[in-house]
Design a protein that fits this description.
Blueprint (H helix, E strand, L loop, with lengths): L3 H13 L6 E3 L7 E2 L5 E11 L11 H18 L3 E12 L9 H17 L3 E10 L4 E11 L14 E5 L4 H10 L6 H12 L25 H18 L5 H10 L2 E6 L4 H12 L2 E5 L16 H9 L7 E5 L4 H10 L4 E8 L7 E5 L2 E4 L11
Parallel strand pairs: 4-5, 9-12
Antiparallel strand pairs: 1-2, 3-6, 4-6, 7-10, 7-11, 8-10, 9-11, 12-13
Length: 380
C-alpha cells in the first residue's frame, strides 16, 4: 500500500494532465490559484457522500462511484445555469486503508471514472485533502463554476404564470436504489458493449422511454426477448442511480439564454425540489398528473398509475433540471433541448401561494395537495 503522500502524488499526476487557461497553480501547494475575470461571477457547491448512507461499496463499482462523486456537484452548477471549471476532492478513508473495501486497483478505477467525467466537461481537479477515519468512507466533492455576471439562475425567481418544465424523465434512480437494496447488482455485460460502442463514436440520443440500453441483447433468441427486456430495464435503473448524467450543457445554455426564471436539480425528489422553488419564490405550483414524465423503469416496482406517480415524484437523485419560464418562450426552450438531445416536458404552472400547501396536483377536474415526502437525512 503506498503512503498517503504517494497516494496524493498519483492523483496530482493525473490532475496535471488537465489544463485550464485561467488556472495559475493547481495541486502542489497550500492552495490553488486561478485568475479571475471581470464581468463574470463564480459559483461554488459541495456534496458529501457517506458510505452506508449515500452509497454502499458492496454494490457501487469503483469507477461509477468516482463518476457519481463528481456528477452530483456538476448537477448543482448546471442547476444555476453556470459552466463548471474546477473541482476539489476530499477523501476520508477508513484505516487501515486495506480494510476500507477498496483495493489499489479499485482506487485507480475510482479516479478513472472521476477524471473521465471531468474531461468530458473541461473540469480541472485543483486540490483537496485525504485523511483517515475510524469508520466509513466519506467523499467530499466541491465544484467551482462561472457564469456571466447577473445570469446565475436561482430558486427565488419563479413568477406567477410561469410554466414548469423538467428534463428527461423521473423515477429511474429510485428504482435502481430499490433494486440494489433488494440484492440486484450491476451486470457488466450490458455496459461493456455500450462503452465499446461509445468509444467508436456511436451517437445515441436520449429516448423518450428513458431506456438507453434497449438496443443491447445478450441473446438473439426470440423466446428470450421478454426476459432480456426486463433485465435491460433493471440495468438501466441501476445505471441511473449509480452513474447519473448531470445536464451540464443544457444548464449552461439555459443560463446564457436568459430564458429561465428559476431552476433546481432534482436531487431530493421532484415534489420536494419544486416545493423548494415555491418557498424561495413565495409562490405555489400546480402540476398535471398526466404530464409528469415517469421513467419506464418505474413499472418494475409499481402496479398502478397512482403508485407510479407517487414513487416517481418523491424518489430523488434523478439529477434532471426542473425550472420555470415564461410559456411564450417554450419554442425556444424546446429547440435548445433538442440541440442537447434532451426530452423536455411542461408539467404545470406557477400559481399564487397556497399558504401551507406548496404544490398541488391536478387530475382531470380535481385539484388536491401533493403529498411530499422526499429524502430527509434527519428523518427517523
Amino acid at each position: 500500500m503506498p503512503s498517503e503522500f504517494d497516494f496524493i502524488k498519483q492523483i496530482q499526476q493525473k490532475a496535471a494532465a488537465q489544463s485550464a487557461a485561467d488556472l495559475v497553480l493547481g495541486i502542489g501547494d497550500d492552495a490553488a490559484i486561478w485568475r479571475e475575470q471581470s464581468g463574470r461571477e463564480s459559483l461554488v457547491t459541495v456534496d458529501l457522500l457517506v458510505e452506508d448512507v449515500d452509497f454502499k461499496l458492496e454494490y457501487a463499482p469503483p469507477r461509477w462511484l468516482g463518476h457519481k462523486a463528481l456528477a452530483v456537484s456538476l448537477s448543482d452548477i448546471a442547476a444555476m445555469g453556470a459552466a463548471p471549471k474546477f473541482s476539489l476532492l476530499t477523501l476520508a478513508i477508513p484505516r487501515p486503508i486495506a480494510d476500507c473495501g477498496l483495493r489499489i486497483a479499485d482506487w485507480e478505477q475510482f479516479f478513472e471514472g472521476y477524471f473521465e467525467l471531468a474531461a468530458k466537461y473541461g473540469v480541472a481537479l485543483i486540490g483537496g485533502d485525504i485523511s483517515s477515519t475510524p469508520d466509513r468512507l466519506t467523499i467530499d466533492s466541491v465544484v467551482i463554476g462561472h457564469c456571466q455576471a447577473g445570469r446565475a439562475i436561482r430558486r427565488d425567481g419563479a413568477k406567477i404564470g410561469d410554466a414548469i418544465y423538467v428534463t428527461g424523465s423521473i423515477g429511474a434512480s429510485a428504482v435502481g436504489l430499490k433494486l440494489l437494496l433488494g440484492g440486484e447488482r450491476v451486470d457488466e455485460r450490458f455496459f461493456h458493449r455500450r462503452d465499446a460502442d461509445n468509444a467508436k463514436g456511436a451517437q445515441r440520443k436520449e429516448k423518450a422511454s428513458a431506456l438507453p440500453l434497449r438496443s443491447l441483447r445478450l441473446c438473439g433468441e426470440e423466446e428470450h426477448q421478454e426476459m432480456f427486456s426486463t433485465e435491460q430495464i433493471k440495468q438501466s435503473a441501476i445505471c441511473a442511480h449509480l452513474r447519473p448524467k448531470p445536464r451540464v450543457e443544457f444548464g449552461r445554455r439555459l443560463g446564457e439564454s436568459g430564458l429561465v426564471n428559476s431552476m433546481i436539480d432534482v436531487s431530493d425528489g421532484l415534489a420536494q425540489d419544486l416545493a423548494h422553488i415555491c418557498e424561495a419564490s413565495g409562490v405555489g405550483a400546480l402540476i398535471d398528473f398526466d404530464a409528469v414524465p415517469i421513467a419506464e423503469e418505474v413499472r418494475l416496482v409499481t402496479a398502478t398509475a397512482d403508485e407510479a406517480f407517487e414513487f416517481a415524484v418523491n424518489g430523488g437523485e434523478d439529477f434532471e433540471l426542473l425550472f420555470t419560464a415564461d410559456r411564450s418562450r417554450e419554442a425556444e426552450l424546446t429547440a435548445l433541448a433538442e440541440e442537447c438531445h434532451l426530452r423536455l416536458t411542461r408539467i404545470g404552472e406557477v400559481t399564487e401561494s397556497f399558504h401551507s400547501v406548496a404544490v398541488q396536483i391536478r387530475r382531470g377536474n380535481e385539484v388536491n395537495p401533493l403529498s411530499i415526502h422526499g429524502y430527509d437525512h434527519f428523518a427517523v
